[in-house]
Specification:
The protein has about 220 residues and is of the alpha/beta class. The protein has helices at about 10-20, 80-85, 100-110, 120-135, 145-155, 165-170, 180-200, 210, and strands at about 30-40, 50-60, 60-75, 95, 115, 145. The chain has a six-stranded mixed beta sheet with strand order 4-3-2-1-5-6, with helices on both faces. Helix 5 (about 145-155) packs parallel to helix 7. Mean pLDDT is about 90; it is low at about 85-90. InterPro entries: DnaQ, Ribonucl_H, RNaseH-like_sf, RNaseH_sf.
Length: about 220
């Protein structure tokens, strides 16, 4: 593909990029958050591949069930060891699309929304690696991590990393469809809404900048 060398990108990337032009909606209650999750063949960002992507929207602390995406990607790389976790077979009856089509669907769905995920760095990195294979730039969206938000709440200062299982148990969130991309996105969306409510009580004004800011002091 010659998109990158010539700096000429395909229409779907231009359409995605166009979403970030002009003044962005800054009023918190109107911001569209897209909570998402990826199921993958493993945890090696460079070697492994995305098997499925699941998303669900949150606006004004309300989960918008109808605003979602679920897509499964064809598996050129197959790892039998991870099937026991996500249950996605190489063949099967589930309709699957190519990696490029999956990325197109994802970009068309998220637009300029603020992305939310649990341990978001991994999911974002997997999407960015897929974009790299298409000779495209990285995601432009702002990103929030529910793991970071829980630490920010200071409800538990014993450690800095909490699994989705640990937090869903702590907040009594049913683990329906756990380890499916859509199921984990929905669980994370519930967690996200709960954490927003907790942080709202601690701070009268909540902004994206505040949610992204680390609690740790740097320097003296």
């Amino acid at each position: 593909m010659s998109w990158f060398r010539k700096k000429v990108y395909p229409p779907f990337w231009k359409s995605y990029k166009e979403c970030f032009r002009g003044k962005q909606n800054s009023e918190f209650k109107n911001i569209r958050f897209i909570v998402f999750d990826t199921e993958t063949t493993g945890l090696d960002i460079k070697k492994d591949r995305i098997l499925s992507i699941g998303t669900i929207a949150v606006i004004d602390k309300t989960i918008k069930v109808s605003d979602n995406l679920e897509c499964y990607l064809t598996q050129d790389l197959f790892n039998t060891e991870t099937v026991k976790i996500h249950g996605i077979l190489k063949q099967g009856t589930i309709h699957k699309v190519t990696e490029q089509e999956g990325i197109i669907q994802f970009l068309e769905h998220i637009k300029n929304a603020v992305l939310v995920a649990h341990h978001a760095a991994f999911d974002v990195a997997m999407i960015n690696q897929a974009l790299k294979r298409l000779n495209l730039p990285k995601l432009k969206n702002k990103v929030l991590d529910t793991g970071h938000l829980f630490v920010k709440s200071k409800l538990d200062t014993s450690k800095k990393h909490f699994s989705l299982d640990q937090l869903s148990h702590r907040f009594n969130i049913p683990q329906h469809d756990r380890h499916t991309a859509s199921g984990d996105a929905f669980i994370t969306a519930i967690l996200f809404v709960k954490l927003l409510c907790i942080l709202k009580k601690k701070n009268t004004v909540i902004s994206i900048a505040y949610l992204q800011r680390s609690n740790e002091r740097i320097g003296l």
